[in-house]
Amino acid sequence: MSGTKYANAVGAVRAMENTLLSKNDIDQLINSKSRAEMEAVIASKVGSSSGETLVSVWEMLHEYAPDCKELEILLYKNDFHNLKAVLKAVISNRDPSDYYISPSNVELSVLTEAISKKDYSLLPEYMRKAAEEAYELVTNTLDGQLSDSLIDKASMQAMQKSAADFGSEFMQKYSQLVTACADIKTAYRCSILNKSAQFMENAICGSSDLEKEQLLKAALGGTESLFTFLEGTPYSSVTALLRDSAAKYEKWCDDVIMELAETARMQAFGSDPLAAYYIAKEAEIKNIRILSVCKEFGADKETITERMRKLYV
Predict the structure, then answer these.
(1) Residue 176, CB half-sphere, CA atoms under 13 Å: how many?
(2) Residue 229, Cα to own-chain centre: how many angstroms?
(3) Which helix (DSSP H) or strand (DSSP E) does residue 147 occupy?
(4) Contact 178, 257 (CB under 8 A)
(5) Is the peptide bond before 96 cis (omega within 30 degrees of 0)?
(6) 106-140 pLDDT, tens per residue?
């Protein structure tokens, strides 16, 4: 979207960017000796809290841009995670609320009713086919892993389609990048576990950066075959990371998504700066969570620093 439609929202986001944790703040958190010191550093940033969730961030953005379909794409991963949770809960007669992630585009009650009654028309169009297919798959095969893979792929397909239909260039690049990162991770795991071609067909989405059939074929040949294929793509640098550790690859994925978000930061109009701010808060909250866990288990400063995600400021 272009023009001045979200000019007020962009102005508000510009002001709130000043409350994001800086590198100096992160260094202070890493060097803190106690939980109280950590809380003090975080509290010094207006609007920041170690207990803060993305719900309040989303509510603020949605208040400024209630009709922005582009922003909703950011929550597709939560929507489809919740679909997996509700599907398993309904089949096993459990309460899905413990596994529900917020914020999301689809309320838990709506999702639960749709699955319980098999009335998929209650769901947004981008979820209906996946919900029906996953329900039939898991009830007929009892293969929860296969059902989860189908839903994960559907999430990425929905992101790409929605971004292409009404998204900006930024959101299209975002959906492609998220898909490529997920596909590489899936292909790597499948190559290690010797998964079948049919399983990979159901699990790998494909994107403009990584053509599905080529990636699938490479993964079927094993990890070295996969690495050789990736070295001829824009993702050649990930082979060294995957050889080293999955954790380093996960960090790399988060960092390149943040680098993409930074390209939208200086735009004066449109919804891209709003999406970028949400991505920045998502990374910040993840950093605080990682840092807290590392502190709890006594990790040294070097280890903690290595695990910190790239900052937006």
Answers:
(1) 16
(2) 25
(3) helix 144-166
(4) yes
(5) no
(6) 999 999 999 999 999 999 999 999 999 999 999 99
Computed over every residue of the chain, the mean pLDDT equals: 91
CB 30 within 8 A of CB 292: no
Residue 69, Cβ density class (10 Å: 0-12 exposed, 13-18 middle, ≥19 buried): middle
Higher pLDDT, 281 or 4: 281
Q: How far apart are CA 241 and CA 228, in angstroms?
A: 14
Structure tokens that stand for 308 in this block: 């910190």
The SS3 of residue 267 is coil
Token output for 212: 């599905």
Identify the weakest region by mean pLDDT among 45-59, 91-105, 167-181, 263-277. Answer: 45-59
Residue partners of 211: CB distance under 8 A and separation at least 6? none
Angle at 147 between CA 141 and CA 148, to 5 degrees: 150
Residue with tokens 């969730």: 53
